[in-house]
Amino acid sequence: MLAPELRVMRRLLKSSLFRLTSKSVPVNSAYEVWSASRSLPTGEILVPGAHRTVSLLNIRLAAIIVSTCAFDFFSHIWSLHPLRTTLMLSLNVVRSVLPAFRGYSQALIIDQLQQLVTSGDFTWSRLINFLMTDVAREVGRRILEGVLETYASVFTTISTPAYMNLCRTSNETIVMDSAKFFVEYAQLEHRVRLDIPTLQDPQIRDLLAESDLFARSFSGSGSFGLLSPLDCIHIISLATEIFSHLLLILSLTGGPVHFWVLLLSLFSVTLPILLTWIRCPEVHSDDTFTPREARAADRQEKMRNLAYDEGHRPEIELFGLGDWILKTWASARKVVLDSEHSRQLQESSILSNLNFSDFFFAVQNIPLVLLLQTSSASLGSLTLYRSSIQSVILASKGLVATCRMVFQGIFLMSAFCAAKDVKPQLQPTEEDAVCYQPCPEGARIEARGLSYTYPGCPEPALKNVNFSLRSGETLAIVGHNGSGKSTLAKVLLRIVDCEGDLIVNGTSIRRYDPFDFHQHMSGVFQNFSKFNSTVRENVGFGRVEKMSSRTTIESAIQLAEAQSLLNSLPYGLRTVLETPGFMQYTGCSPVRQHGLSGGEWQRLSLARAFMRANEPQVDLLLFDEPTASLDALAQSLIFDTIDRISRSPTTGTRTKTVILITHRLSLARRADRVALMENGTITEFGSHEDLLQKDGAYAALYRASL
Ligand SMILES: Nc1ncnc2c1ncn2[C@@H]1O[C@H](COP(=O)(O)OP(=O)(O)OP(=O)(O)O)[C@@H](O)[C@H]1O
């Protein structure tokens, strides 16, 4: 918890900084600032991770980000370990002053030695005495410095939160680890809570990609060319180091002449650094890939993945894709290399090729020469001057490089903060949201004018779909390939949004929280998942709270007619299943995995659905081609099981509504209602007998299937 004074101060700082910065930039949220920083004056959009130029607009945007999210972010990080973080910051500042002190005490020793030698009464005993006192004091001081550093590193007495059960070695590691944990957890949370329509939005994808980069910047200083916000302490350390050295240099060069010479010297120190800024072209090398270059980079990566992915290996061999992969990769790689080369040429201006270092070195020696002229100049002060100047040069270079990286990091931070605020598109507003009330006789469904177009597609996959289903009815959806059956399943299961109204149990589906809604249904997707995991997890994912219950998992497996499969597996439920293209490692050796046939995988997907299907709160079951890979006998048994599950075990009355998508018309005819889909819409709807009597497209399809 922050102290109230600190909170007031933070609010004041935030509002004044925001007022100062947002005047000329019309942005309100982290998302808008992030968006604005990606747009180039040419209208192009930067690819995720591209560097932002150091322009006036971007500096303003960076200041807005600092005023809108950085305070909150840092105060959160600080609140994880207030004492440790404060200690870490303080020690870094103290450590950065130490080099100047070190130089100063070295100079003192040199001066005293010089005095001893030049005073005229040098004796060996006086030298030994000097070594025993002054040098020993310096050694003692250094030991103390070392102890301070060690103390800073092993300060581990403060308790760590229980969730951070990681191996600790130093105070800084603890602070960094907790920050890393917080950021990575938040990043994972952003991903997990967003729904498919939100994740399909290209802007959101880019936002999450940059937010990912921000989270990765915590994995180690400077990795991926990024710095985490915690590395900002380097800026403070470097600035303190420069400042302390400058003070020393100033104290050495008294008088107006020396002052101007010192200015000249400092100018010569900073000029090379300034030149590196000027050398930066208006558009930075990494900033803009042209669409062609971005496509080439993408293609190059795809080809690389194809070559490495073992899941694709059989078809790559069967269809002889090796040469094609190599050729495509090579042409894409050439485009990428050419673009990198042309950028390098643009960057290598004449300035970069001029070597001024000798000249600057000479300029920095002018004050040294002047110092030598003065009677007060001692060997110690000369040594101190030289070492301090060198330290200023090094620290200034480090400061510029760190500032640049932090500048980029600020924009990634805006992506991270904006990602936190992205609302899942399917989530109803708080005022609109209602709890799903399951119907004990099965869900009632009414679809009015449902339409859906996949993002980026010109044609809708669903067009004006209308039907209604009473509680406990079974509906079989049939139709040719591509007629829209699976798309309708996704709409009914609230995986994607659609136009029109879908009323379930008397309430628009849009008013249900998708998480709540999904608690009351179960089913199998046409492209169900094959998890690279044990049998227990592959089935238990259907109801994670029962994952540890052997009997629940085994009875679900039994319902899916997969008991004999389980018995044949070498480690039963613990057998790790092999999914194409995924090799699991423990230590350095691959885990022994067990492959399954298509039909066996399908049985496990059914078992997963049955884990939840039996639950009384579930009132809707939807199976999209659940038996496509099963033999005829298994198909019939599974349909019997689905029918049994959808009824009360005591009275036999229907308790769940069932929707079944299938190409097997012999099974579809067992449903209460049949819907025939053509070109994205339902063209015939009724009982099997009604539709046969109608003698339309369904009747023709049915006759053809016999
Ligand atoms: N992710 C997608 N992006 C764009 N278009 C898609 C996508 N998925 C499906 N489509 C298109 O939507 C239409 C309906 O596809 P859908 O999968 O719903 O058909 P289906 O009736 O289930 O086919 P099948 O019987 O082969 O499973 C098709 O034209 C298909 O090309």
From TrEMBL:
Family named by the database record: Belongs to the ABC transporter superfamily. ABCB family. Heavy Metal importer (TC 3.A.1.210) subfamily.
Domain ABC transporter: 445-704
Record-linked Gene3D superfamilies: P-loop containing nucleotide triphosphate hydrolases
Source lineage: Eukaryota, Fungi, Dikarya, Basidiomycota, Agaricomycotina
Keyword ATP-binding: yes
Domain of life: Eukaryota
InterPro entries reported for this sequence: AAA+_ATPase, ABC_transporter-like_ATP-bd, ABC_transporter-like_CS, P-loop_NTPase, Type_1_exporter
GO molecular function annotation: ATP binding; ATP hydrolysis activity; ATPase-coupled lipid transmembrane transporter activity
Classification via Pfam families: ABC_tran (PF00005)
Cell inner membrane recorded as keyword: no
Annotated protein name in UniProt: ABC transporter domain-containing protein
This protein's UniProt keywords: ATP-binding, Nucleotide-binding
